[in-house]
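Board work, copied verbatim: Universal stress protein
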Amino acid sequence: MFQQNRVQHILVAHDLSPDADLALRRAAQLAHQTGARISLLYVLDERASAADEQDARALLQERLQRNGLSHIEPWIRRGPPVEEILTQAQGLEADLLVLGQHHRGSSQGFAGTTLERIMLESPAPLLLATAPADTPYKRAMAALDFSRCATRAMQYAWELLGDGAQLRALHVHEMAEVHGPDYEGLALQQELFDQLIEDIQSQLPRTGAQLSHSLLQGERSNCLEAAISDLQPQLLALGSHSRGELSSALLGSLARQFLDHPPCDILIAR
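↓ predict structure ↓
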């Protein structure tokens, strides 16, 4: 039986960049939709002065006010950004950690291995927000293998969808396309996948969203790219295995591609 999840506390890690503003905007939209509360975290350099901290607080409060969150007092901590974000996510018992898309131009930005480490070590599922959050998510995709973390990512994605939204669960039966179709293997995978979806669906709360699922056979990169092109999801849910690699059974070498060039907002769960 799969455990039902619930997003009640959203933590936004901000770095005063426009990308982080998008993350806060999405978090505010999700909080309004789900009734979750929000905390906003900024990690200050240990060498920063009191004036720097005062300036950062003023900027954060302005951004909170802009998103209708003027009642929130930002959390400002000093230290290494990764360690502080992970510590606060655990200490505040966040159900969802939201970051903006990484950018390499900022000295404190969430770039490269820093972003990966947060994703892989975060105690809470992580939402990488990349697009303006003018409206709730309407189209989502969950890349499913048969791992617990991929299932958990799909469950959390479902929690972020509202009435009328669509979530498509996708599984890839991987094989080299030059070998031609494997009808016997595909039939077995379809039977197993149908049962997995039935088990997951029985545990999902009623949100007004609609669930569909599809199985593709071929090379995983081609299948996943084709599915994304077809559905044009606003949210892509992925599982992250223990020390690491993003859902290797489905994504494999595409992990870096999704981190560097996300096609939409990405939700990752361990």
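The domain at 137-268 is CATH 3.40.50.620 (Rossmann fold).
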